[in-house]
Amino acid sequence: MKILFYDTKPYDTEAFDAVIGDFPDITIDYLKTDISEKTATLAKGYDAVCLFVASDVSTRVVELLSACGVKLILLRCAGFNNVDLEAASRCSITVMRVPGYAPEAVAEHAMALAFAVNRHLHKAYIRVRENNFSLSGLTGFNFAGKTAGIIGTGKIGAAMCRACRGLGMKVIAYDKYENPALESIVEYVPFEQLLKQSDLISLHCPLTEETYHLIDIEAIERMKDGVILVNTSRGALIATEDLIRGIRQHKFSGVGLDVYEEEDENVFENREDDILSSSVTARLLSFPNVIVTSHQGFLTKEALEAISRTTLENAEGFMKGTADRANLVTL
Ligand code: NAD
Prior knowledge:
Blueprint (H helix, E strand, L loop, with lengths): L1 E4 L4 H10 L7 E4 L17 E4 L7 H9 L4 E4 L9 H6 L3 E3 L6 H16 L2 H9 L17 E5 L3 H12 L3 E5 L12 E2 L2 H7 L2 E4 L13 H6 L4 E5 L8 H9 L3 E6 L22 H6 L4 E3 L8 H20 L11
Parallel strand pairs: 1-2, 1-3, 3-4, 4-5, 6-7, 6-9, 7-8, 9-10, 10-11, 11-12
Bound molecules: nicotinamide-adenine-dinucleotide (NAD).
The site of nicotinamide-adenine-dinucleotide (NAD) has 31 residues, from helix 4 and helix 6.
């Protein structure tokens, strides 16, 4: 099987090259450019394309891939909200993903963001580098003894529940389906109650029609004053304009975002010389109690190794007709 990789970064090449030897029937060509209507036709002659989280796999792109003879879209990520699944099904293209790779990688990044905004590490780091050893404005609060509210308790949310519990927090959670593995450490509560009682709220549910703008101004106004909000899941779970309003109303001690609504043009690109066309990201970055990272929750050695191995196992399974059904993305 010949696979064309789009949007390849050095850490992708390193991780896939390290495991490709175990898959003798697969060859990979790497492209730096991401997939688009202009670049989809480069896939002519390939059996599969491998794409990442910000790739725009629109109807037209799927149709172009189909015309090139591509039969398989391999997502080297968990989320698939960027793929037109209806078009893929119509064009008989199989879509596969990596649903659960090192969930602790993302949970630990969520925790890192929570710690960083709580203890103002982003400001402390800059101050000390400038020989400013003042502590004014750096007061945080102890997580121990406080309440963590986890929205979505699948693989990553469960890891976050365990991490919060390990810090001595009370853990409450909201999910459509309770996770029996968390029975002894988590109390499931209605969404409203989670908003009202949590000192730290961390989002770990997928982006769906139902969860789009789950955190809007009504939800924000129901939260405790001084709450910390962390989103490592998908940007559109939060209505950004409402978030900005909430920040201006001094609702939050801190906000940590690994994902945000406008990220698609930014993620993994160096845009330091660009004049950005919208002010939303710039406004978010202007607040002293907000930390934004660029969708790096997955970026640990363990997660990259798991992603590369599972992606190639998905390709092999597709070829042999033994694909792991849990990794298939269907309508
Ligand atoms: P998962 O499928 O194991 O868990 C998702 C949980 O959300 C499930 O328990 C599900 O029941 C729950 N859920 C679904 N709809 C809900 C709703 N309407 N309200 C409340 N809960 C709901 O997924 P996961 O592996 O834990 O990943 C969670 C999300 O993390 C992914 O969807 C993806 O968007 C994001 N993610 C981010 C990164 C990153 O680098 N920042 C990396 C991987 C995944």
